[in-house]
Write a structure and sequence with these properties.
The protein is mainly α. It is about 90% helix and about 0% strand. It is built from five helices and no strands. Helix 1 packs across helix 3, helix 1 (about 1-25) runs antiparallel to helix 5 and helix 4 runs antiparallel to helix 5 (about 115-150). The longest helix has about 40 residues, at about 115-150. The two termini are about 15 Å apart.
Length: about 150
């Protein structure tokens, strides 16, 4: 389970890093209407890919890992619990409470060019900030899981 969780978390960190490092910057080179519509297309596509099972599968495995860390007293249990809390709060909660509602609002405004033009700058700024949190949380959890595996050997 630990290897699978580490790989899944690393993949999620990479996905979020791609948005932070170049996707959102690329969208910033477009006008608000094209950028907003491109982001809507990305959001519609990503939910039809392996992203969804990786997203929910990693959350499920972290919940199990957290329970395991709290029940069994292993030397690496505190690191495992810390990784789980960082990931569940910094990735899962931020996504559900921040990025998803913003994506839904963007979708609603996609056909109203005036509202989309007004909404896009604040969307891009706030969505990117939230995504940076997801990136750092996922990368940090990956690093912690690597330490857990090292200690468990």
């Amino acid at each position: 389970m630990l290897i699978a969780l580490t790989v899944m978390t690393g993949i999620m960190a990479g996905i979020y890093a791609a948005f932070s490092l170049f996707v959102m910057r690329s969208l910033a080179t477009l006008d608000a209407i094209n950028a907003g519509n491109a982001m809507v297309a990305i959001n519609q596509t990503i939910v039809k890919t392996l992203f969804v099972p990786l997203f929910f599968g990693s959350v499920l495995l972290y919940a199990c890992a957290l329970v395991d860390a709290l029940i069994y007293s292993k030397p690496q249990a505190s690191l495992l619990a810390f990784a789980a809390v960082i990931y569940l709060l910094g990735m899962f909660v931020v996504t559900l409470k921040g990025n998803v509602p913003m994506n839904n609002r963007l979708q609603e405004l996609a056909t109203n060019h005036q509202q989309l033009r007004e909404f896009w700058p604040q969307y891009a700024k706030q969505w990117s900030r939230l995504n940076h949190i997801r990136t750092v949380s996922s990368a940090s959890a990956t690093a912690l899981l690597c330490n857990v595996m090292y200690l468990a050997r």
